[in-house]
Automatic annotation (TrEMBL):
It comes from Arcobacter caeni. It is found in: Cell membrane. This is Multidrug export protein MepA. GO terms for cellular component: plasma membrane. It comes from the Bacteria. Keywords: Antibiotic resistance, Cell membrane, Membrane, Transmembrane, Transmembrane helix, Transport. The keyword Transmembrane helix applies. Belongs to the multi antimicrobial extrusion (MATE) (TC 2.A.66.1) family. MepA subfamily. It is a multi-pass membrane protein. The lineage of its organism: Bacteria, Pseudomonadati, Campylobacterota, Epsilonproteobacteria, Campylobacterales.
Length: 444
């Protein structure tokens, strides 16, 4: 499919549907993890996953930074017909992610206990979290490499292959969750092993594409320095900032929830994150699919097509938000019961209190994600970073410490919706100032 010439709606859905289904596969696997851990391990299992989350944010953020930045640069080069330089960036990116992932995970592996104590975990929570992380950190390098390959597969006109890889990985995770957690009763260790093996599957499925006849991008002999990769990484820096910000925000939210609601508060916040994950991953899939489309049209200077792609994305993410709002408003108890047994009464009440306010975040988060992806695709990383850091760090932290003075503990629950709302205002101002027409006119 020629993304710079074919019908707008056909291109949009050709890229967005596999991306959304892939993200749904990932989120469903995470949700199934939460279901098995919540029901077969308990509150402490959910809390152990959440206390470990900042580590994942660091590692996944770096992988996304390289994947998004380098793939967008590669997409622009492919749009210009420069296949040789596109393959060079691809090769150097793969060398960087492979080296970094194994080095950093090794360092983290030998310092797990010290890190968990810094995160505020007590002795009991630390024991469970170490059991989980000691397995996960062995496999995470394969996930990081797989994430980067996923982006390059899509930029190489194989969105369906990327979808198949994500779905296969998710299916393997779900199947192994049942075998290891329920059937073999391996608890949190089984959950970690299931997740790790599924991450390895992602790499195994995607890598052969770049040795096939269908590939435009190829592994080539790396020549010259790596300044191109540094520049490309800067373009994807908003993704890194976003992930790191989410990790830090989660860390602070965990602290506040422990202080106000004890370990049940952390478990409840984990459940809320699972509910947020469903809607956000769908919107992220839509916005993510825009990056190869917009970057190629940006290289071809097709501003009107970019505007149409943005309209489609705004409509679809708004529809997703409305569906999620209806689910959270009308069946919050049913959603909470997925992850919690009836005996977890206190945790469930905190979840329901959170749900009373959290639905409002879905009015704005999809549009915020789309605009952030647009700025990344047109090589405006600073603007994308402003949106990312506003919604995932600056405003959540500001509101979680200020709103409780006005609304008591309800202020904690209002922090995320308020952060998305203020970010939405900023994003719309930036979009108006840097519209596709203005950007391409300036480039031309």
């Amino acid at each position: 499919m020629n993304v710079t010439k074919d019908k707008i709606s056909s291109v949009f859905f050709h890229y967005s549907i596999p991306s959304v289904l892939g993200m749904l596969a990932i989120s469903s696997a995470n949700i199934v993890d939460g279901f098995f851990i919540g029901n077969y391990v308990g509150d402490f299992g959910l809390a152990a996953i959440n206390i470990s989350f900042p580590i994942f944010s660091l590692l996944f953020g770096f992988a996304l930074m390289l994947a998004v930045g380098s793939s967008v640069t590669t997409g622009k080069l492919l749009g210009e017909g420069n296949i040789k330089n596109a393959s060079m960036i691809f090769t150097k990116t793969m060398i960087c992610i492979t080296s970094f992932s194994f080095i950093l995970c090794t360092i983290l592996f030998f310092n797990i206990e010290r890190i968990l104590h810094l995160f505020g975990a007590d002795e009991n929570l630390t024991i469970i979290a170490i059991e989980y992380l000691s397995i996960i950190l062995i496999f995470i390098p394969f996930l990081m490499i797989g994430v980067v390959l996923d982006y390059f597969v899509r930029i190489d006109n194989r969105p369906n292959l990327a979808f198949v890889a994500l779905v296969s990985s998710a299916f393997i995770n779900i199947l192994l969750d049942w075998v290891l957690i329920v059937y073999l009763q391996k608890g949190i260790f089984g959950a970690a092993l299931a997740t790790g093996i599924s991450q390895l599957a992602l790499l195994i499925i995607l890598l052969p594409h770049f040795f096939s006849k269908k590939a435009t991008l190829r592994f080539v002999k790396p020549i010259g320095n790596y300044m191109q990769i540094l520049k490309a990484s800067y373009n994807g820096a908003s993704e890194f900032v976003n992930e790191i910000s989410i990790g830090i925000t989660t860390l602070i939210f965990n602290y506040v929830m422990i202080k106000n609601f004890h370990i049940e508060g952390v478990a409840a916040f984990t459940v809320i994150n699972y509910l947020l994950l469903i809607g956000i991953m769908i919107s992220f899939g839509i916005s993510d699919s825009l990056q190869p489309i917009i970057s190629k049209n940006f290289g071809a200077k097709e501003n009107k097509r970019i505007e149409e792609f943005l309209k489609f994305a705004f409509i679809t993410t708004s529809f997703v938000g409305i569906v999620m709002i209806m689910l959270i408003i009308f069946i919050p108890n049913t959603l909470a019961n997925i992850f919690l047994e009836d005996s977890n009464y206190q945790t469930k009440q905190i979840v329901l209190s959170f749900a009373t306010f959290i639905w409002a975040a879905f009015l704005f988060n999809g549009i915020n994600l789309v605009i952030s992806a647009y700025f990344t695709a047109i090589h405006k990383p600073l603007h994308s970073m402003i949106i990312a850091i506003s919604r995932s760090f600056l405003f959540p932290i500001f509101f979680i410490f200020t709103l409780p003075f006005l609304f008591n503990t309800n202020g904690i629950f209002l922090a995320i919706p308020m952060a998305e709302f203020i970010t939405f205002i900023i994003a719309m101002i930036l979009l108006k100032k840097f519209s596709p027409k203005k950007i391409i006119y300036k480039e031309g």
